[in-house]
Amino acid sequence: MMGFSEERTLIRSLKYFLLIGALISTVSAQTHLTSKVGEADGGGTYFQPISPVEEVRDKPSWEMGPFINWGKGVGDRSDFNFLWAGFEVGKTLTPVLHAGILSGQFQLAGSVMPLWQAYTPAPHIQTFTFHGATYTAPVGGGTYYGASIMPVIFRWNFLTKSKRIQPWFQGAGGLIYTTHKFPPDVLVPHGIPGATSVWNFSPQGGIGVHYFLRSRRSIDLGVNGVHISSASLGDHNPGVNASFQIQVGYTFWR
Q1: Alpha-carbon gap, residue 63 to 80, rounded angstroms
Q2: What is the pLDDT of residue 2?
């Protein structure tokens, strides 16, 4: 049989375990509560559960994370393909601004892309027509390598009732550097592409969503229309009038 002192020790131990369990439960519960306090029907106060979207919306947050981008030219550049990858940093700058269905928050961001590649048709002979005359000339092509920086991304995060999905639209502008003049053009002596530039600009706009997997973690999907132009830094500016880009990323919110 268990002695009196042993019984008291067992009861004391059970009390300690119950107390520790209660503390752990309280701390765990608090991680799912928000600071929104209201009047309960029977008096007193209550805490309303917070969603991942509300968490980053109610307290303007920093966001940062890697992304990868795949794209394809359209129109006369439909045989161009693109692969870009980099890192984005942004900050929500305003509280929710109410404007009907356009209600939301303004965010400023920027990105760097140390990986920038364009896949164009291999060098070939092309037929041209100029002032009614037809002639052929060698044209450059192949894979182009470079890097890009996008110092300005203006993003509008829409107000939403969803607990996990945050939609947005954006406008942005960037600068691209390639190790050879882009886009490919007629080759000048020694096989060097002429008339275009190693520097190009990339104004763009698009839409997308953050999908929150859990608190302050989201995967991101965006679709952008991108224009690539040298602003006539070369003798002429053939550019890439339009390309369709799909971006996938992962974001950490702070």
Answers
A1: 32
A2: 43
**Residue 83, C-beta contacts closer than 8 angstroms, at least 6 positions apart:** 68, 69, 70, 71, 115, 117, 119
Band of pLDDT at residue 235, cut at 50, 70 and 90: confident
Reply yes or no: is the peptide bond before residue 203 cis, omega within 30 of 0: no
Please state the φ and ψ torsions of residue 21, each to the nearest 5 degrees.
-60, -40
Which of these, 98, 65, 71, 93, lies nearest to 83 by C-alpha position?
A: 71
For 210, the token pair is 């953050």
Q: With cut-offs at 50, 70 and 90, classify the pLDDT of residue 47.
A: low
Res. 168 pLDDT band, cuts 50 70 90: very high
Query: Which parts of the chain are beta strand (E)?
Result: 33-39, 45-49, 62-73, 81-92, 104-119, 124-130, 133-139, 143-158, 165-182, 187-188, 192-193, 197-201, 204-214, 217-228, 240-253
Listed by start position, the domains of the chain span 4-46, 52-253
Question: Which helix (DSSP H) or strand (DSSP E) does residue 27 occupy?
Answer: helix 4-30
CA 136/CA 214 separation, integer angstroms: 59
pTM of the model: 0.78
User: Strands 133-139 and 124-130, how do they pair?
Assistant: antiparallel
Distances (CA, A) of 204 to 23, 29, 114, 173, 235: 52, 44, 19, 6, 24
**Tokens standing for 79?**
């045989």
Task: Domain 52-253: give its CATH architecture.
Answer: Beta Barrel (2.40)
